[in-house]
Amino acid sequence: MATNVTNSTAKCSYEPDSPTEQVFKCIAYFIIMFGSLIGNVLVICVVIMNRQMRTVTNYLIVNMAVADLLITAFSMPVTIKLIVTRQTDWSNGVFSDMLCKIIPFSQSLSIASSVLSLTAIAVDRFLAIMYPLKRYMTFQIAYSIMAVVWIVGIAVNSPILYAQKVVLARGKWRCIEKWTPAFTEEASKDFTVVLFVIFYLVPLLTMSVLYSFVVHKLWVRKVPGNQTVENHMRSQKSKKKVLKILLAVVTLFCTLLASRVH
């Protein structure tokens, strides 16, 4: 599940792009990297600088923005370098070995933090809708959740820092995933299963269940007072809008995470 551009490149046969494809890929990655940098920084600044935006949900969104910046800072520049130079070689040295470990680790940590933050947002929305008169998610709890998100992400993904190594293969230095000698080769599959369960299956089931309760609660809720046709239509339109948003969140979670991991 841990993403590794350099690892996948080393294992798969690499067919060079044409000059036109190379230019378009570079432009596309620059646009994505620039958009991600500006967009996530703006999200962070808006929430921090605007007092009205300082809510528990927005703080969790800021946590996601920080996680996304990890990929922007560590992964995208390396990918652009690979496209421009068309070189997948690594040098033998401490700095090269550190990059080999940090890049895939930061990618996987970014995904883990984003997923856990999305799950925390689902819990926050569930509590807010199901128990509107009680405030369960305070700022202190939100801070604790964000700390737990990063601690869990770092702890679960820490084996990547051991497995990623720069080794000599076919006369060239490659950044690959190698679990020996501390573990067997089967450790790679076991680690992938652990990541899949913790950062995909459990969050997906949690969000699906919680949002299902939210949708049901909103759908069966009766608006107090006399219901006119106009009010009824407005209420139905609002419910459908909420349903579409929640379905979009779960769907995007599945598709985006599947596209960022392998």
TrEMBL record:
Database matches in InterPro entries: GPCR_Rhodpsn, GPCR_Rhodpsn_7TM
Membrane topology classification: Multi-pass membrane protein
Annotated keywords: G-protein coupled receptor, Membrane, Receptor, Transducer, Transmembrane, Transmembrane helix
Superkingdom of source: Eukaryota
GO cellular component: plasma membrane
Database matches in SMART domains: 7TM_GPCR_Srsx
Ranges annotated as spanning the membrane: 27-48, 60-84, 104-129, 141-162, 191-214, 242-261
Compartment(s) where it occurs, according to its Swiss-Prot or TrEMBL record: Membrane
Molecular function terms, GO-annotated: G protein-coupled receptor activity
All copies of domain G-protein coupled receptors family 1 profile, residue ranges: 39-262
Entries under PANTHER family matching the protein: LEUCOKININ RECEPTOR (PTHR45695:SF9), LEUCOKININ RECEPTOR-RELATED (PTHR45695)
Family: Belongs to the G-protein coupled receptor 1 family.
Annotated protein name in UniProt: G-protein coupled receptors family 1 profile domain-containing protein
Organism: Desmophyllum pertusum
Organismal lineage: Eukaryota, Metazoa, Cnidaria, Anthozoa, Hexacorallia
